[in-house]
Amino acid sequence: MTHDAPPALLSPALPELLRTALTLAATGVPVLPLRRGKVPFGNCRTCAHNACGGRPNMKTPGPCRCLGVCHAWAAATTEAAVLTSPAWMAAWRRAVCVGYHPGGAGLTVVDLDDAAAVAWARAALPATRVVPTTRGEHWIYQGAMGSSNAVRPGADIKSAMSYARYLGPGSGTMTALPDAVRALAVKEPATARSTPQAVAVPAGVAGGECPHRTPVYLERGIAMAEQRITEARSAVHATVYRTFLAVLSTHGRCGCLTDTHITRLFTAARAKGESPRHCADAWTNARTKLGL
Asked: For a surface tag, which of 42, 196, 228, 278 has the fewest beta carbons within 10 Å of its beta carbon?
């Protein structure tokens, strides 16, 4: 991330955070304001509860079709006209920091929360650009990948469909995203359970290996289900329910669904704006429909 922006955009009359955001945007880094708690602003009334269906595919940064700062990471933009629009100006005046979409800039951030995580990274990962945080460090690599939380104690990966807080340019030379970081997001297969702890919703499965489907078939099915939810352009609630129903109808009785599979489905739904309660209700309703 470099820091060259047209001087005309950096008027002293603009809020300081906005001037920082415009500088980043001019270098191709999609940015957005973050409010108290270092989180995105909530959706506007038109988009509340993702009623508008969200941005198409929710895969690329940029503004929602409404005038508000909506849809979290997907609101991030490099367009100065959007960043300085009336609705966004109101948000900047209330913002506490600048956020950015790493994946939209072709970057991956390894967010290290504490000294122990930093010590691990120094021993296990290739050196790259480092940005100090309040308690730890952000290690920034060139290249995008899927985001994943808690890849190990004190470490999250923020890239595609995620946002990170901008804390300055950092120091060191940014290096290419290494396989060691990509490997962190590859989870070990979980043991099937009757109650998935991660989402606290009964799975309704019997336990044991699937007697009629191969692991490859199951993985493909879960990936397709995630894609179906992610690409929903409208009727998100209905799409989530139908997708849960399809997965459960195929694998809900044979015991091959694990906590990891179910959490992946819930995470895809949450990324489209579904609340934890909506996810739980859709899962429960699908199980009830199938008599599980």
From this structure: 42
